[in-house]
Amino acid sequence: MTTDIPALISLLARNEVEFILIGGVAGGAHGSARVTFDLDVVYARSRENMARLVRALRDQEPYLRGAPPGLPFRFDEYTVRMGLNFTLTTKLGDLDLLGEVVGGGFYEQILPRSIEVEIAGVRCRCAELEALIAMKRAAGRPKDREAVAELERILEQREPREPA
Fold first, then answer.
1. What are phi and psi of 13, to 5 degrees?
2. Predicted confidence (pLDDT) per residue in 21-74, tens digit
């Protein structure tokens, strides 16, 4: 199943979920050419925001990605409050909901290191390029190391160069 990233972002935004784009979609917002197959977001852990998140996804049949079919799982406020990071599959595709990100921290720690972007007509927060690089570097997976190399080239092209 292909993930409808614009639809997921729109759904979260319409329901006033406080979230920040990270991962491949954030990389794309900064100019990365890498393809991504899911939406990664860090979300605020306030009770109000977790309630909005659950309400937003209620009709999307969220289920733990990779879990065996029929495993009892309820995506409700209690589950979100007791958990932290969720890799989900939904009717709109794959969604990673992260309460905490290695190399970045919690929503409140990443928020000052985020910018506003527009994706598919929706205004939302996105991790700044430097913050995204730090998160990918900390994750340390081979695909993240490859992404860091590209993101660092993008950063170098943005920074004003000193005269030789």
1. -65, -45
2. 999 999 999 999 999 999 999 999 999 999 999 999 999 999 999 999 889 999
Question: Which residue stretches of the chain are H helix?
Answer: 5-14, 23-29, 47-57, 77-82, 107-110, 129-139, 142-158
Q: Residues 3-21: pLDDT tens digits? A: 999 999 999 999 999 999 9
Within 10 Å of residue 4's Cβ, how many Cβ atoms?
16
Which residue, 95, 88, 56, is CA-closest to 71? 88
Tokens describing residue 17: 């979920």
User: Which phi-psi region, left, alpha or beta, contains residue 140 (left: φ > 0; alpha: ψ -120 to 50)?
Assistant: left
Tokens linked to 88:
């989900």
Find, among 7, 82, 74, 8, the residue nearest to 40 by Cα.
8
